[in-house]
Amino acid sequence: MCGIVGYWGAKQASDVLVGGLRRLEYRGYDSAGVAVLTGGALHIRREVGKLQALADGLGRAPLEGSVGIGHTRWATHGRPTTYNAHPHTDASGRLVVVHNGIIENYMALKEKLQAAGHVFQSDTDSEVLAHLVGSCYGGDLPAAVRHALQQVEGTYAAAFLHQDHPDTIVGVRHGAPLVAGVGEQESFLASDVSALLDHTRSVVYLDDGNLVQIGPEGVRVSDLADNALPLEVHRVDWNPAAAEKAGFEHFMLKEIHEQPASLTNTLGGRLDQAANRIHLGDQRLTEDTLRGIRRVVVVACGTAYYAGLVGKYVLEELARLPVEVDVASEFRYRRPVLDPETLVIAISQSGETADTLAALREAKRLGCPTLGVINAIGSTMGREVDAVLALQSGPEISVASTKAYTSMVAAMLVLGVHLGQVRTTLSDADAAGLIRDLKHLPALVTKTLEMAPKVRALAEAFALSQNFLFLGRGINYPTALEGALKLKEISYIHAEAYAAGEMKHGPIALINEAMPVLAIATRSATYDKMVSNIQEARSRKGSAMGTVIAVATEGDIQIAHHVDRVLFVPDCPELLSPIINAIPLQLLAYDIARILGKDIDQPRNLAKSVTVE
Ligand code: F6R
């Protein structure tokens, strides 16, 4: 997730751009850049690291000019380096682009352009857009953009500026956010309204398939066939901080609701239905290496560890490989038995967690091939692993992880299908079914989020409970662990999770009327066992059972006979169910913490990135 700003007007463009980018820094910031039209020519400045580095550079050597585009980058394709930072230029050097999103067919486009003599300066998919539009340019920038986009697959928001067209900045939106701002003799483009609020409160929300031009005539919106569209200008009353949260009360809630988009990004470009193949996106992990693997060890902490536990079920099922999952802080102080035929997977949102990093280094020392399932690919872990499976879920601001968790699980599913195919443990027909299911996943998550009001009502009823027990089985045992962690870390309510079959070996003694039990009982191979476990607990003589709440599959009319409350989620294949089932648990934790008035985005004693032991 990157940030885009564009400016046409009379002010110093670089000031407006940097000011706007500062508001968008929450979208990611491993590098930043601006291009400004100065004396009829484009001048570009790019810096790695925080935006301040760019601002300092512009302070030392200002760029004069009142038209420009700017970008903060959160690396997805290519590491955070100056040459990968935006803006990118076309072959002529007269056209620049800033881009947010993923060009899924960028490799094919790049090869075609290279064959035609184009030379690329970066590893990004975005540079392909610049060259492609440049190659379509015949004197009319909007026409060139329209023409080029016919060849582009993926999600994007982008802004283009050509030095021969100082009067027009062109923006396009397809699956990534872009808004236009209307001012007095000036207009703006931005990834979201927070970047505009210092200058204007009049905003045009763009839709997918819109092309927008800003310039002396103000804002013009058209479709890709150049039919002008009516301009709907909205008045925004948010303050900039609320705007960063897109109107949500907390980042956690925003991130929960972002999951259809974050999962689309994680899966983007990886599911090739036509060829019935998975593209992991990092050529360094070759099929030969994967075929040579005899065992997998996953190292991670906290929520990422639970994603690893789901990964164990997935990889064992699809790739028939033995998988061990270790809490990284334990792994590093054991003498783990590892060899070069063991693939070690480090899962981490931040890529900076000290324990996971130490475990990874130990694995490397022992000669294991390593794979990072990482969100911040420019992080230390991202640089040290042999190959990266980038989550591409955008920066996560809330300390309690939500969208990164579901992306981690989705990434493990993608890896599982790929490994299964490479190792021929998964039939082509089953792979095709899973690829189809994964394509449908973001839409299913959107549908699941519709249950939010029901979860809120449940939270009202249980917010004052002192204890909570979460039960799950099979691939949803980790879901129970993750649900309990979410609740305890933001509401400070004591919550435990057990594999439901373990209850009778001790924990069942805990149960009394004050202990709500949340049982994950969605359609699965162990559904009947789960129902028996619920019944076992309820039929204890002499001990009243607390309320049992089930997360169950829509259409399951039986479940109501066994439990007191039900949260229904959409039906889905069992392998995908940890993603769907996590959503009501995320919402429940959020709603209870909100009712209790807790500091949701920054819970006590916790930090987003745990870089110490
Ligand atoms: C819980 C949470 C933590 C992290 C853990 C690992 O909501 O966010 O448990 O999952 O600290 O962090 P990363 O994924 O950055 O390695």
How would you sum up this structure, described in words?
By secondary structure, this protein is an alpha/beta fold. It has 3 domains: 3-242, Aminohydrolase, N-terminal nucleophile (Ntn) domain (Glutamine Phosphoribosylpyrophosphate, subunit 1, domain 1), CATH 3.60.20.10; 244-448, Glucose-6-phosphate isomerase like protein, domain 1 (Rossmann fold), CATH 3.40.50.10490; 452-595, Glucose-6-phosphate isomerase like protein, domain 1 (Rossmann fold). The protein has an 8-stranded antiparallel beta sheet, covered by helices on one side. It has a 6-stranded antiparallel beta sheet with strand order 5-6-7-8-12-13, with helices on one face. Strands 18-17-19-20-21 form a 5-stranded parallel beta sheet, sandwiched between helices. Helix 17 (477-491) links the parallel strand 22 and strand 23 (494-499). The two termini are 29 Å apart. The model has no long low-confidence stretch (mean pLDDT 93). It binds fructose -6-phosphate. Fructose -6-phosphate binds at residues 301-304, 348-350, 353, 356, 400-401, 485, 489, 609-610.
- Tally the helices: what do you get? 19
What is the CA-based Rg, rounded? 25 Å
Can you tell me the number of structural domains?
A: 3
CATH class of the largest domain: Alpha Beta
Number of separate strands? 26
Classify the beta-strand content into a percent band: 15-25%
Summarize the structure.
By secondary structure, the protein is α/β, with parallel strands linked by helices.
Lay out the secondary structure:
Elements: E1 3-8, H1 13-24, E2 31-38, E3 41-48, H2 51-60, E4 67-73, E5 88-89, E6 95-103, H3 106-115, H4 126-136, H5 141-149, E7 154-162, E8 169-174, E9 179-182, E10 187-190, E11 202-205, E12 210-215, E13 218-222, E14 234-235, H6 240-244, H7 251-257, H8 259-267, E15 271-272, E16 277-278, H9 287-291, E17 295-300, H10 302-319, E18 323-327, H11 328-331, E19 342-348, H12 354-365, E20 370-374, H13 380-384, E21 387-390, H14 403-422, H15 428-449, H16 452-462, E22 467-472, H17 477-491, E23 494-499, E24 517-521, H18 527-538, E25 548-553, E26 565-569, H19 577-595
Parallel strand pairs: 17-18, 17-19, 19-20, 20-21, 22-23, 22-24, 24-25, 25-26
Antiparallel strand pairs: 1-4, 1-10, 2-3, 2-4, 5-6, 6-7, 7-8, 8-12, 9-10, 9-11, 11-14, 12-13, 15-16
Helix pairs in contact: 1-2, 3-4, 4-5, 8-14, 8-15, 10-14, 10-17, 14-15, 15-19, 16-19, 17-19
Bound molecules: fructose -6-phosphate.
